[in-house]
């Protein structure tokens, strides 16, 4: 196992994002159609928050709809904005952070995803799944 391997080796570079003006119905469609659990929220090129699928589940019955269905009861979603539901106090890492350092942050803070930011620009996202897959590939 490489001790100084960088997070840029395992992070997702082609990041799906939400604009802070998007609605929660759009967010749910992205979560389900891409089978992901975390989406960075941006304003322009600046990351301003992170929305998780769990955040949606807290305010709705999103999990009651089958994954292949596209219709959602949007009554609850119309009561909230993405900015009201997303996490705002983010911890981020740069692409030259080591995998070990990222694993320590995720374990200590109990996060499941971290945005990867270089020069105030979102360049990737790293999740606990990325770390688990990295470990699996080491054996």
TrEMBL record:
SMART domains: CBS. PROSITE patterns: CBS. InterPro entries: CBS_dom, CBS_dom_sf, Diverse_CBS-Domain. Keywords: CBS domain. Residues 11-69, 86-139 form the CBS domain. CDD domains: CBS_pair_AcuB_like. Signal peptide: none annotated. This is CBS domain protein. It comes from Meridianimaribacter flavus.
């Amino acid at each position: 196992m490489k001790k100084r391997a960088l997070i840029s080796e395992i992070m997702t570079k082609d990041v799906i994002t939400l604009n802070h003006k998007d609605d929660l119905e759009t967010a749910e469609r992205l979560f389900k159609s891409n089978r992901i659990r975390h989406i960075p929220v941006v304003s322009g090129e600046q990351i301003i928050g992170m929305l998780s699928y769990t955040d949606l589940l807290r305010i709705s019955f999103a999990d009651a709809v089958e994954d292949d269905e596209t219709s959602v009861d949007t009554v609850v979603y119309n009561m909230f904005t993405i900015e009201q539901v997303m996490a705002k106090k983010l911890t981020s890492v740069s692409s030259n952070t080591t995998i070990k350092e990222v694993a320590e942050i995720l374990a200590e803070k109990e996060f499941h995803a971290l945005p990867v930011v270089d020069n105030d620009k979102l360049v990737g996202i790293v999740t606990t799944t990325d770390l688990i897959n990295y470990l699996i590939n080491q054996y």
